[in-house]
Amino acid sequence: MLLEKVGSVMVVGGGIAGVQAALDLANSGYYVYLVERSGAIGGSMARLSKTYPTNDCSM
Amino acid sequence: MPLTSVDRIQGELGQFHVTLREHPRYVDSQKCIACGECAQNCPERVPDELNEGINERKAIFLQYAQAVPLKYQIDADHCQKLRSGKCGICEKICPAGAIRFDDIERLISLWVGSIILAPGHRTFDPSGVRTWGYDVFPNVVTSIEFERYLASSGPTEGKLVRPSDGKEVKRLAFLQCVGSRDYNKASHGYCSSVCCMTSLKEAMIALDQVEGLEVSIFFMDMRTHGKGFERYYERARSRGVRFHRCRVHSLEPANEQGDIYFRFITDEGKQAHGEFDLVVLSVGMEPSRQGVALAESLGLHLSGDGFSVTSSFAPVRTSIPGIYICGTFSGPKDIPQSIIQASAAAAEAMIPLADARYSLTEQPESAPGRDIRGEETRIGVFICHCGSNVASVIDVEALAEYAATLPQVAHVERSLFACSEDSQQILRDLIVEKKLNRVVVAACTPRTHEHLFQETLKSAGLNEYLFEMANIRNQVSWVHAANPEAATAKARDILRMSVAKVALLEPLDPVTVTVNPQALVVGGGVAGMVAALGLAEQGFPVHLVEKSGQLGGNARHLFQTWRGEPIQDFVDQLVTRVKEHTLITVHMRGQVTQAEGFMGSYRSTITKPHCTTAMDHGVAIFAMGGQAYKPEEYSYGQSPRILTALEFDKLHLVGDERIKHGRDFVFIQCVGSRVPERPYCSRVCCTHSIQSAIALKDEEPGRNVYVLYRDIRSFGQREELYKKARELGVIFINYDLHQKPVVRVQDADLSVVAWDHVLHDPFSIRADVVVLAAAIVPHPEVRDLARIYRIPVDEDGFLQEAHVKLRPVDFASEGLFLAGLAHYPKPIEEVVSQALAAVARATTVLSNRRIELDSIKARVNEAACDACALCLDVCPYHAITMEPIADGEAKQRIRVNLTRCKGCGICQATCPKDAINVGGFTYRQLSAQVRAALS
Predict the structure, then answer these.
(1) Residue B511 DSSP SS3
(2) Do the chains contact at A9 and B158, CB–CB below 8 Å?
(3) B114 touches chain A (CB under 8 A)
(4) Rounded to a whole number, what is the distance in Å from the CA of B916 to chain A's nearest CA?
(5) Among B156, B511, B852, B889, which is least packed by CB within 10 angstroms?
(6) pLDDT tens digits, one per residue of B282-340
């Protein structure tokens, strides 16, 4: 068993929520394992053409 | 870690032992250059999941064009080689030798301090319900399929044609609540929260694409309760989208051409029917199978709907310390809510691990790169084929030959994808091997890829500003695809310009700011207190400024959340924790009166009675809150029995006679909300009134309780309350903005006159108490603070975030963040989430000792400058000042504050002496580029 707290976080799910959480943690000094079941991150948002209410491109 | 799933989680907060299962990709990610040769030649066709199976992909495929990582994968269920040993074409054809048919599953073992679960949702599948006809009629599609029809990357390249015969769609209908708010056909009682807006968006995009398109939306309640949504709804109305408040029973074929027919009830209560070319089922969300399995394996509490359950006061915490959740795993929500929760989960995950920060990573150190003084100029030119994006139009070989003839070019290299990992390695090696000291990449746009190449330069020891990108894709091959010869000539011109400029580029020194680890939080309500605690618990000192003499804000007036959790206990605990925390300084009756500075180094003046202090801080979080609108309508103020919702709550709680003995109660919704003066929804009032109505009925079932509403917006799992209220006999009466109810006060009698939209007659309801669901308006302090920090407010007076969708807690000005009602009306669990999200966003700044800024800054050539000071006045960032050359000297000189300067170049354009220049864009460099263009 390790003695000290581990400075890494596992994020399960590579959709927009998982990606945002991973970025905030990595940018704050933690090692992040972003675990995604499919072959690429992006999740449900990758299927959207545009997002409301700004009609910005979802990609 | 793509293609990976979680096998097992053991241990506890600080020390979780995780076993992961990495599934085989059958393609070596290190080698794959995503050229697409494999998929082009693969004989096996498979329905494409990205496009909901509307078209096909191959058995070796890329999930989508912008996939990260951009690597192909083999679908083992469909690959002939993997199934039967035959084929193997991709292996023979792959130019990178990346195919690995012998790839195997691997188990990975990790130690992590905390865990965030974001497994998402899945879309409701309407197959099998005959009345919708989804799998019967080809011209009935789901809203996700429709999204793909609208997408330029979709199966029809954005052309809106219908599936059965490719006919252009002229008559389009959306049916709302398919798989949501429906126990009969879907066994989902909850509202999916996003589908109303999704349909509005799809309707608007479709209207842009097809001239003369007729769009009808069939709905029960339009739930446009988010920021900016109500205006969007109004825009859709004004563009002619027709709205019918009616749930359609069943769809039928209209004829043999594939048109769809259905009957519906009009707003006037008359039966009508319509024929449509295409019908879109606005499908809702369901818990994902993986999410449910994960929750079950960990023993996390799930609601009856299968979504993860959390407390409103700790919205991203699970029952296991150290495991947090975010996104649609805990219930349907839209993108900004998911992002807010994601940052909140990041904050919760990092707070207990504060001691272990940087134990496994290092703070990025800035390095100026190798000293190139005295070196002869040696330019490397890298030409990217971008798969076939560039190479199918531009003669890249000829371009490379031409590049080699340009002055000072020492090496020319072509690659299929200059951005791939192996190409980066080649670029790195060549910089060292060929002693290159300037680099031009002729490829796509610097907006997306400049940073990547600059990082590669840095890793090769070269200053990253010795770099230029020539955009031969967006500006050449894409726009001149029909004329390859002219395109190649233009590519030569653009490349020549870049080479001419890069030759004159100089290394730019890193510009860094020392980060002050203190934070300022404005507002001592729930949002402000949660934010202050989140930062203080990580060891960052916080100054909390509260205008009033009491902490707690609006939450002091609230008694329970929509789930019935007691709010006062929570607020009391927060106040105690804030007061007791040694790193939090509370400035009661304080006000920020002045501020200056930039990310990492702000100075704000806090004015309190009898004292004023200046305080330095690295970041600030604004949580000034909102307040209740004071109604001027519905005879408010003319009778002690016409109350706002907050007044009602208090009287109800203390057992006031008016309520205790009242028999007839009328709630009027949207008082001050969704009106021309305030065209936004206050998000919480429907649920609040329903909750009060339920309480009144629970106490005394014989009471008559009426709710006069425009749309009931009990979004998400709140829908359960709406159902309960109806079951208890609360009477819901719809009214229209143009026929608002009238409250009559006659002596001691109260009555409410509303319009019966079926009988077309007014009718009167006797009332003992009338409750007005008053709007939430921004706190007046929002405007003052916005002026002081030069941050924007929206047209309704709320703080305007950097991006309504993707950056919901940031401002465009870095180092400043927002949370709570100052941003938009929201319930308490969303306030807590947003405050925690602000903590995570602020920590990305505070956790750095120094922050590196862009080095493209104005610099003064003192030999040429005569200190005329013209540049001072034009600088929009107040970055330029005058100061004496030496102490006591009368002669002045110009100084640029590099941290404030944004490199806009206005000073450079103004200076008559060419004495101030922006690094990387000096007159000399730009004119060399222009001369090259003209040569």
Answers:
(1) strand
(2) no
(3) yes
(4) 34
(5) B889
(6) 999 999 988 899 999 999 988 888 899 999 999 999 999 999 999 999 999 999 999 99
| CA pair distance B706, B835, nearest whole angstrom | 36
Q: Distance (Å, rounded) from C-alpha B325 to C-alpha A15? A: 13
pLDDT over threshold 90, residue B425: no
- The beta-carbon neighbor of A25 closest among B25, B329, B346 is B346
User: Could A9 and B847 be called an inter-chain contact, meaning their C-beta atoms sit closer than 8 Å?
Assistant: no
pLDDT at site A54: 67
Under a CB-based contact definition with an 8 Å cutoff, are residues B173 and B274 in contact?
yes
Question: Tokens for B724?
Answer: 């309960």
ipTM of the complex: 0.94
CB within 8 Å of chain A, chain B residues 4-33: 4-6, 13-16, 18, 20, 25
Q: Is B100 exposed, middle or buried (0-12, 13-18, 19+ CB in 10 A)?
A: middle
Q: In what order do the strands lie in the sheet with B260-265?
A: B252-253, B260-265, B271-276
pLDDT value at B493 more than 90: yes
Which residues of B fall within a CB distance of 8 Å from A57?
A: none
Can you give B381-437 as a three-state secondary structure string?
A: EEEECCCCCCCCCCCHHHHHHHHHCCCCEEEEEEECCCCCHHHHHHHHHHHHHCCCC
Pick from B320, B271, B278: which is nearest to B295 by CA?
Answer: B320
pLDDT, average across residues B464-474? 93
Neighboring chain B residues of A7 at a CB cutoff of 8 Å: 113, 353, 356-361
With a CB cutoff of 8 Å and minimum separation 6, the contacts of B404 are: B381, B412
* Minimal Cβ distance to B327: which of A9, A15, A52: A15
